[in-house]
Design brief:
alpha+beta, 23% helix, 36% strand, binds adenosine-5'-diphosphate, binds magnesium ion
């Protein structure tokens, strides 16, 4: 393992933990998405890994070596970790070349120049080496921050919301570029983001944080299809929660009956999570409803359908199909597994 967190907590104010019980790990070459809403503790977690915050409980290991615990604090410069800060934090009085070379200690001056040139080429910055940060676009500044963090060959790269200062059209391109760069260099990285598309699209595994706690650590597929809590279900995509009641190993709901998963341990009053892609509008359905809203989204159209029970459920259909508002339709369920939550959990 490159990185292991075991029950890590950080406390800013006595008696009140900003994060608590955080455990996850990264193997060589993994990209781990650290996902959650603003204020949930993503930056704190990243700073604890980098060594900028002490931990108040638990342990952090890098390449098997304990670097942080209550009685241990290896300083940031000895952790071999590179960090790209949310605002990039470039040195304004240094050129691109000097920024990228800042953390380099080893080798002769000409070896370092050569290595910097390689880093600039890798990040698409060749020719800009004598520019100052103020004369660069947002995307170029981000590349400099990335080149600077990667130059000392860190064992782990930490990225704090690296796309939040870029225009949306730039973001898509930079995501692809970064993914390509991380994978071709086999860099292990922790990518902090509040954007579920970014986390699910780029990461090999995702840790979802909520109010300083880890809600789930899983692959993007598991996270989306088998969320561990209603919060995760909602945070990683659109989800409807249809009320149901368990009776003799089946959940009865207004959209039909479902088998109860074997590992369900809650009470008989439940909600069943249903994603828009689990519901198909068409013949041979298990229930009917009336189209109440329609949102064209390019490759798909999302319909809101009111059930006779009063519940609202969403369905994504191919945008070549078109159902007028107020039409009565039949619904067919495509879900291959049931995701259930006790109605009393939030
Ligand atoms: P995120 O990056 O997910 O938005 P942060 O890790 O920055 O969240 O913050 C987590 C919590 O810790 C928040 O409630 C925030 O107000 C608090 N916090 C962050 N930094 C400090 C600090 N230096 N002093 C006191 N509280 C802080
Ligand atoms: Mg933050």
């Amino acid at each position: 393992m490159i990185l292991e967190l075991h029950n890590v907590a950080c406390t800013y104010e006595a008696g009140c933990s900003a994060i608590e019980g955080i455990s996850f790990s990264a193997r060589k070459g993994d990209i781990i998405g650290l996902l959650g809403p603003s204020g949930c503790g993503k930056t704190t977690t990243l700073r604890a890994i980098a060594g900028f915050e002490p931990v108040s409980a638990g342990e952090i290991r890098i390449q098997g070596q304990p670097v942080a615990a209550v009685d241990r604090h290896i300083p940031p410069e000895q952790r071999q970790v590179g960090m790209v800060f949310q605002d990039y934090a470039l040195f304004p009085h240094l050129t691109v070349q000097e920024n990228v070379g800042f953390g380099l200690r080893h080798g002769s001056a000409s070896e370092r120049r050569c290595h910097i040139a390689d880093m600039l080429a890798l990040t698409g910055l060749s020719g800009l080496d004598q520019r100052y940060p103020h004369a660069l676009s947002g995307g170029q500044q981000q590349r400099v921050a990335l080149a600077r963090a990667l130059a000392p060959k860190p064992v782990l790269l930490l990225l704090d919301e690296p796309f939040s200062n870029l225009d949306p059209d730039m973001t898509y391109r930079m995501r692809e570029e970064l993914l390509h760069l991380l994978k071709t260099t086999c860099t292990t990285a922790i990518l902090v983001t509040h954007d579920h598309e970014e986390a699910l699209g780029m990461a090999d595994a995702v840790a979802v944080l909520y109010r300083g706690q880890l809600e789930q650590f899983a692959s993007p597929e598991i996270m989306y299809h088998l969320p561990a809590s209603p919060f995760v279900a909602r945070f990683v995509g659109q989800a409807d929660f249809i009320p149901g009641t368990i009776h003799e190993a089946a959940v009865k709901t207004p959209v039909g009956n479902f088998p109860v998963p074997q590992d369900y341990r809650g009470g008989p009053e439940v909600v069943v999570m249903i994603r828009p892609d689990d519901i198909q509008i068409g013949e041979n359905g298990s229930c009917t409803g009336t189209i109440q809203s329609r949102q064209f989204r390019g490759s798909e159209t999302r319909y809101g359908i009111r059930l006779p029970s009063g519940d609202l459920i969403h369905s994504s259909a191919s945008s070549t199909q078109r159902f007028p508002l107020h039409t009565r339709v039949t619904l067919h369920l495509k879900a291959t597994h049931t995701v259930l939550f006790d109605r009393n959990t939030d």
